[in-house]
Amino acid sequence: MKEKKYLLGIVGLLVLCVLAWFLYSHFKPQAVEGDKTIKVLVVHGNKEEKTFEYQTDAEYLADVLKVEHLVEGEEGEYGLFITSVDGEEADDTKQQWWCITKNGEQLNTSASQTPIMDGEQYELTLKEGY
């Protein structure tokens, strides 16, 4: 009897995993091919703001930022970890980091995992404190 419950639990977990994978792959943000125009607002540590406008056929934000030499960073498990934007480097000793937002809302993806679409605006803001 215990073995049946254990087996049913494992089968149920496997079904849930497959369902979660299917839902994620079906509903995740999709990259868009073709020419796009995007804006990138950079908010430096001193609160100075600069806006950059790019025309690109790239599908992901990191590709645009690297080609245009706006950012520097390290490639990691989740893609590009941005360490420097527009010449300003985040200082680890001050717990500084570059936050990516789109139209003011924080993204939960790295720049490498953020698909871009025509007309969108992204913000790169130097934040302090983890």
Structure description:
The protein is α+β, with helices and mostly antiparallel strands. Helices cover 25% and strands 37% of the residues. The strands form 2 sheets. Strands 2-1-8-6-7 form a 5-stranded mixed β-sheet, with no helix packed on it. The N and C termini lie far apart (49 Å).
Give the fraction of residues assigned to helices: 25-40%
* Count of DSSP-assigned helices: 2
Q: Calculate the mean pLDDT score and round it.
A: 87
- Which structural class do you get from the secondary structure elements? alpha+beta
The poorly predicted ranges are none
| H-E order | HEEHEEEEEE
| Percent of residues in β-strands | 35-45%
* Rg computed from alpha carbons, rounded to a whole number of angstroms: 20 Å
Distance between the first and last residues' Cα: 49 Å
Number of separate strands: 8
Silhouette: elongated
Largest sheet, spatial ordering of strands: 2-1-8-6-7
Largest sheet: 5 strands, mixed
Element layout with pairings:
Layout: H1 2-27, E1 36-43, E2 49-56, H2 61-67, E3 71-76, E4 79-85, E5 88-89, E6 96-102, E7 105-106, E8 121-128
Parallel strand pairs: 1-8
Antiparallel strand pairs: 1-2, 3-4, 4-5, 6-7, 6-8
Features:
130 residues; alpha+beta; 2 helices; 8 strands; 25% helix; 37% strand; elongated
In short:
It contains two helices and eight strands, in the order αββαββββββ. It has helices spanning 2-27, 61-67; strands spanning 36-43, 49-56, 71-76, 79-85, 88-89, 96-102, 105-106, 121-128.
